[in-house]
Each structure stands twice: as C-alpha cells, then as structure tokens.
Amino acid sequence: MRRLAAVLATAAVTAGVLAGCGGDDGNWAKKCTTTDGVVECAPDKRPAVEPITGELLDGTAYDMAQQKGKVVVVNFWGSWCAPCRAEADDLENTYQATKDKGVSFIGVNSRDDRDAAREFERGRVTYPSLYDFPGQVGIQFDVTNVSMPATLIIDRQGRIAVALRQATTEAQLKPLVEKVAAEGQG
User: Fold this and answer.
1) Which candidate, 113, 167, 147, 132, places its Cα nearest to that of 3?
2) Of 179, 162, 157, which is closest to residue 29 (Cα–Cα)?
3) pLDDT for 85-96, tens place per residue?
4) Phi and psi angles of residue 105, each rounded to the nearest 5 degrees, phi first
5) What share of the chain is helix, strand, coil (3-state, %, to 5)?
6) Which of 24, 63, 67 minimizes the C-alpha distance to 47?
7) If both were cysteines, with which of 53, 79, 118, 168 could 173 make a disulfide (CB 3.0 to 4.6 Å apart)?
8) Alpha carbon 52 to its chain's center
9) pLDDT by residue (tens digit) across 124-137?
10) pTM for this entry
11) CA–CA separation, 64 vs 51, rounded Å?
12) What's the rounded Cα separation, in Å, for the pair 23 and 170?
C-alpha cells in the first residue's frame, strides 16, 4: 500500500515531460514535432532550462552548470518502475557509446528508498543519479508532465532538444543523442 501511495504521489507531483517550461505559455511542445511519445524541437523552438542541482545517490553534490557546453541526457527513473528497469541497459549502452562525443548522462531517482536505488544502479549504470525523493527536479527544470520513465536530451546551449515520454531503447535513444551532439560540430 505504501508503494502504491508513493507511485500515486509521484504521478500527482509530476503528472501531466512537458506541458510548460521556462516562462513559456505552456505550449512549447506544440511548437515541436511529436511522434509516438517523442518530442523533437528544432533549435529555434527549444525551451531553455535552468541548470539543476542536487544530491547524488552517493551523497555528493551535483551541479548541471558544470556540464556547460555538453549535451546532457536526463533520465527520470525509480527502482520500483518496471519500464525503468527494462531500459537501464539501453541507457548505459548509449552513455558508453556517446560519452566521448561531449555527452553526459544524469539519472533522477524519485519516490524511492535510497538503498533500493543504489542497489538497482549497482552493476547496471556507471553514470550518476540525483536522489530526488519528493520529485522536485522536474519542477527545477520548470517542466511538468514528467512520467516515469522519461528522458530529456538537453543541447549544448541548455535547451530541451528531445523529450521521450516513455521507456526508450538504445536503437531509439542513441541516434537522437548523436544527432543533438553533432549539432554545430561540423
């Protein structure tokens, strides 16, 4: 029952990635192309996000501002989320394949026990995750409608280039990350 309450609370806090952002009128995703739960924004339509900060699962501090000039892939997950578990290997494989292209990954663990989250990550992913029990990171990004799992690809200028509103696969995610990483690199 407690788990159900946590899941419902997460849904309530983050319900509804991407109805509003950064002072926009809440319609920025409508200015982008949406296909099968994937929102892709042309560079001139991308909403800027404020860099997020927080505490990682290992207790150290994280500041997204330190990733300035990099593409940042942000994945919202919970160890209790079956689709999150299913996509973990695909996220790690994409991270390994793109990290030398100026790409960093950060997970955002919500509505979870810290020990359960650490155990879930052990042996699955090598990139860090923020511990965000109350689900505030979506609010820090000033985006709503963050479901779990969900993934944002933030371009080198700190704008949302792509939002995936569902579990992803390496075959889906890697080309999207590579496309955003290649922008301006020619």
Assistant:
1) 113
2) 162
3) 999 999 999 999
4) -120, 145
5) 35, 25, 40
6) 24
7) 168
8) 11
9) 999 999 999 988 88
10) 0.85
11) 5
12) 32
Q: What single-letter amino acid sits at 118?
A: R
Residue pair 130/109 in contact by the 8 Å Cβ criterion: yes
Strands 103-110 and 71-77: what pairing? parallel
C-alpha torsion 177→166→20→65, nearest 10 = -40
**What is residue 35's DSSP assignment?**
E
> Which residues constitute the domain of residue 146?
2-182
- Domain CATH number, residue 39: 3.40.30.10
- The domain total for the chain is 1
Between β-strands 103-110 and 129-132, what pairing exists: parallel, antiparallel or unpaired?
parallel
Number of alpha helices (DSSP H) and beta strands (DSSP E) in the chain? 5, 9
103 — pLDDT class (breaks 50, 70, 90): very high
**Cα distance between the two ends of the chain:** 53
Q: Which two tokens stand for residue 66?
A: 């330190």
How many beta carbons lie within 10 A of that of residue 81, not counting itself? 22
Distance CA 11, CA 16 (A): 8
